[in-house]
Design goal:
Blueprint lengths: L2 E9 L2 E9 L5 E5 L4 E8 L5 E3 L13 H6 L6 E2 L5 E2 L3 E4 L2 E4 L8 E2 L12 E4 L6 E8 L10 E9 L4 E10 L3 E2 L3 E2 L16 E4 L3 E5 L5 E7 L11 E2 H8 L4 E5 L7 E7 L5 E7 L3 E5 L23 E5 L14 E2 L5 E11 L3
Antiparallel strand pairs: 1-2, 2-3, 3-4, 4-5, 6-16, 7-10, 8-9, 11-12, 12-13, 13-14, 14-27, 15-26, 17-20, 17-22, 18-19, 21-24, 22-23, 23-27, 24-25
Pathway: Carbohydrate metabolism; hexose metabolism
GO biological process, one term: galactose catabolic process via UDP-galactose, Leloir pathway
Catalytic activity: alpha-D-glucose = beta-D-glucose
């Protein structure tokens, strides 16, 4: 079997499950229906031993520890209705202003207090021989302040080419902001070191400007010739030093619809390469500068600052407040669709 279901814990008297996907090459992906959350991605090394490469926990309790709740890193979660920050926790649509929770300073973050990452999703599997599952959810009108009822699903498929395909589908019955992403933190070294010696390449010279609160302004900055111009690969730590900060950069891409290679990350030993493909117009490269050093997996794998990076593909942050932001609003009856692929390659194969 390529999909195995097991118990993962109980929350509010509701059982939570864990689904283990495995491909023919031995790669393993584990996903829980609490938050449609990727809890583990394991890659086989040259000796066939599995190496953990993402931040997460092996039990539901790990996502409810005081250290996790105080830090809110969203490890591996599916984020919505609208990921990233919405300025001043409000937006106007069709002549009406909608107020949201200000859960990130004055702004709204990742859908609010109880976003999609804190819901229990329904699950279906295609068949036992396919390493694929689909998780579904219904979001009611005015949930967390957003208009319209939304039916949505996210499918996770692990191919025998070591690709993890994530496909989103959502349909609202009213015009509403929608921007969904996956919030997995990767460390391609298997957490043997920080990610500062990874090299990163992002295939654009444009990123969004942020204001003092961390919300996007809509202004696009040309980074050509700057330290954060990653069109040619650079060591992440060297850029950290040059900008005196970690990455929290929203890179912008020209093609909105086509599945395109937007980023490539390689570990310091050049053993593992991650290529990111997406249909989305924007990607946040985040290097975990706010991640608490108090967080670790049950087996002792240490998380913390610069111990994991995210490639979050989505619509423009603060899109509902940015004129001309591509597809930040999904119209009533129309389908929101999005695809992102994380493809892993091994240099010693």
């Amino acid at each position: 079997m390529k999909v195995i279901k097991s118990d993962f814990g109980v929350i509010e008297d509701k059982k939570v499950a864990l689904f283990t996907l495995k491909n023919a090459k031995g790669m393993v992906v584990k996903i829980t229906n609490y938050g449609a959350t990727i809890t583990s991605i394991q890659l086989p090394d040259a000796q066939g031993e599995l190496k953990e490469i993402v931040c997460g926990f092996d039990s539901l309790e790990g996502y409810f520890s005081e250290a996790y709740k105080n830090n809110s890193p969203y490890f591996g979660a599916t984020v919505g209705r609208y990921c990233s920050q919405i300025k001043d926790a409000k937006f106007s649509l069709n002549g009406k202003t909608y107020d949201l929770a200000d859960n990130c300073g004055p702004n709204n973050l990742h859908g609010g207090v109880i976003g999609f990452d804190k819901r229990i999703w329904s699950v279906t599997t295609k068949d036992a021989d396919a390493a694929s599952i689909t998780m579904s959810l219904q979001s009611k009108a005015m949930e967390e302040g957003f208009p319209g009822n939304v039916k949505l699903s996210v499918s996770f498929t692990l191919t025998d080419h070591n690709e993890l395909k994530i496909q989103y589908l959502a349909t609202p019955d009213e015009d509403t902001p929608l921007s969904l992403t996956n919030h997995t933190y990767f460390n391609l070294s298997g957490f043997s070191e920080s990610i500062e010696n990874h090299t990163a390449q992002v295939h654009t010279n444009k990123r969004l400007a942020l204001d003092e609160t961390g919300a996007a302004t809509g202004k696009i900055i040309n980074v050509e010739g700057q330290p954060d111009d990653l069109r040619e690969e650079k060591r992440i730590g060297a850029v950290h030093e040059a900008i005196n900060d970690g990455f929290e950069h929203f890179y912008v891409f020209d093609e909105e619809e086509a599945l395109k290679n937007v980023a490539s990350i390689v570990d310091s030993q050049k053993l593992v390469r991650l290529d990111v493909y997406s249909t989305e117009p924007c990607m946040l490269l985040y290097t975990g500068k706010y991640t608490s050093d108090d967080l670790k997996r049950e087996n002792g794998i240490q998380y913390g600052k610069y111990r994991g990076f995210c490639c979050e593909t989505h619509r423009y942050p603060n899109g509902p407040n940015i004129e001309g932001s591509p597809k930040s609003i999904t119209k009533a009856g129309e389908n929101f669709t999005s695809t992102t692929v994380f493809k892993f390659s091994f240099y010693d194969n």
